[in-house]
Amino acid sequence: MANSVLCDLCGRTIPPHAHYVVRIEVFADPKMPNLTAEDVDNLDFQKALAELIDQMKTLSEDDLQDQVYKQFEYRLCRPCQIRFLANPLGKPREQNQGRN
Ligand SMILES: [Zn+2]
Question: Of 4, 14, 29, 44, which sees the most CB atoms within 10 A?
Fold first, then answer.
């Protein structure tokens, strides 16, 4: 069973080449914000920069990397693939906690 894989959601063994791959990329919006001259006037760059540097002091390199770009890759069996496609973001999360 060298080529079989385990489903990352339910843990069952999937026959070779019968699994689905889910790739998720999470990254900051790469687009530049459309700032008006008035917006720029209202920004306090020195203050914002100082706050950012303060924040960065408390973060590890991994934390910083996570804020920029994060990629996940999962392998799913067919039933889990169907469930994933029906609700890719796993909504609703908060409401389901503590219930059956
Ligand atoms: Zn599964």
Answer: 14
- CA of 40 relative to ligand 1 center, distance in Å: 50
Domain residues of the chain, as ranges? 5-30+42-90
What pLDDT is attached to residue 96?
55
CA–centroid distance, 14 to ligand 1, in Å, is 8
d(CA 26, CA 17): 27
Q: How far is the CA of 62 from the centre of ligand 1 (A)?
A: 29
Residues 6+ apart with CB under 8 A from 80: 7, 9, 10, 20
Q: What is the pLDDT of residue 95?
A: 62
Q: Please give all residues whose CB falls under 5 A of ion ligand 1, grouped by chain where several chains appear.
A: 7, 9-10, 77, 80
